[in-house]
From TrEMBL:
Protein name, per record: DUF917 domain-containing protein
Ranges where the S-Me-THD-like C-terminal domain occurs: 174-355
Organism listed in the record: Pseudonocardia aurantiaca
InterPro entries recorded: S-Me-THD-like_C, S-Me-THD_C_sf, S-Me-THD_N, S-Me-THD_N_sf
Top-rank taxon: Bacteria
One Pfam family this sequence matches: S-Me-THD_C
Residues in S-Me-THD N-terminal domain copies: 15-171
């Protein structure tokens, strides 16, 4: 669990990005955007501005001004429409100007290939440290689906920008309304936009964020590199890092995917010796069924890896014939509270099932 980790990392430099982005794609559970795109953008910023300081949430002053920044929209679109790095820092600056405060730290709102590295771009451009944490401990598709929501932190005011230079600031009555309005704007902006929201104090960040996410991502990415060099079992290594377990191995025999209302929605069938595993996703993998029976579901993690390399496979990269392994792992415990289940449980997404939890006692 990311919330229990400590780290000796104090900076993130260009040479850390490949491992960080790979590990973030693992935690992204199929969503969060293409890790390759995110890594390229962050490398450009770090090459120009130098490494960024990495600060644990526990070290944040109470009165710090923490500004998360992220990409919002369909991952399938982000692959084809690379965002402008200039707009990332501009989005933070627009929100700071609206609030009349000076940012002291940048943060990730979710783990994911793009959204773990976008904050590094903003931090490098603005000369600010980045918080070693995130708002989920994984990735989820909707804006209100973050632990800060459970802590009572408002999503708005929030800034939103597109690659053309259009920038706006939204203020809404609640976090769910922020999702609805920002999603409509994102669709108008071509199904991909840059946002900065959930501006919070240091005290709020300590309560609302999952600590250690960026260091965990980097460790997972480096562990994958080591195991591959040793010709070891990369899938088992990932499962071990996350306290998870192999759920299924097989070949992708069907993928149904569509971009609708700003999301990549669909399902995939993985045929294996133990039968067919059906994965249901909305940007992220949310439900895994075998023979119609749910094996594990959101909020716990369903991670698809290339069987040979252990490389994480995003939902937009799933293809017929791909040999993959599916790993289940536990989510941050706060997601299993009644409020967390109401926010991200399978029934919220339209699946007629109660959560099927992965844990030590009831592992799939």
């Amino acid at each position: 669990m990311t919330g229990t980790l400590t780290t000796s990392m104090t900076t993130i430099a260009e040479e850390d990005l490949e491992a960080l982005a790979r590990g973030a794609a693992v935690l992204g559970t199929g969503g969060g955007g293409d890790p390759y795109v995110g890594r390229l953008l962050a490398a450009q910023a770090l090459r120009e501005h130098g490494p960024v300081e990495l600060v644990p949430p526990a070290d944040l002053p109470d009165d710090a001004s923490v500004f998360p920044v992220a990409m919002m929209g369909a991952p399938t679109v982000m692959v084809e429409k690379t965002p402008s790095t200039e707009r990332i820092g501009d989005t933070v600056a627009a929100l700071a100007e609206h609030l009349g405060v000076t940012p002291t730290h940048i943060a990730c709102i979710e783990a994911g290939g793009v959204n773990s590295t976008f904050p590094l771009v903003a931090a490098a451009q603005l000369g600010l440290p980045v918080v070693d944490g995130d708002g989920m401990g994984r990735a989820f598709p909707e804006l209100q689906m973050v632990l800060p929501t459970l802590s009572g932190i408002a999503a708005t005011p929030m800034s939103i920008a597109d690659e053309k230079g259009n920038v706006g600031v939204l203020t809404t009555v609640d976090n769910r309304s922020a999702e609805a309005l920002a999603r409509s704007l994102t669709i108008t902006m071509g199904c991909a936009a840059i946002i900065s929201n959930y501006a919070m104090t240091g005290a709020q960040a300590r309560e609302g964020l999952v600590a250690g996410t960026l260091s965990l991502c980097t460790r997972i990415g480096r562990r994958l590199e080591e195991v591959r060099a040793e010709h070891g079992d990369a899938v088992a290594a990932v499962a071990g890092e996350l306290g998870g377990r192999l759920l299924h191995t097989g070949k992708v025999v069907d993928v149904a995917r569509r971009t609708a209302t700003g999301f990549a929605r669909g399902s995939a069938v993985v045929a294996g010796e133990s039968g067919d595993l059906v994965l249901e996703f909305q940007n992220e993998h949310l439900v895994a069924r075998r023979d119609g029976v749910v094996q594990v579901s959101t909020p716990d993690l369903i991670i698809v890896l290339d069987t040979d390399s252990g490389e994480p496979v995003t939902t937009e990269a799933l293809r017929f014939g791909h040999r993959v392994s599916v790993v289940a792992a536990p989510a941050d415990e706060r997601w299993h509270s009644p409020g967390g289940i109401a926010l991200v449980g399978p029934r919220y997404f339209g699946y007629e099932t109660d959560p099927v939890r992965f844990d030590g006692a009831g592992a799939p």
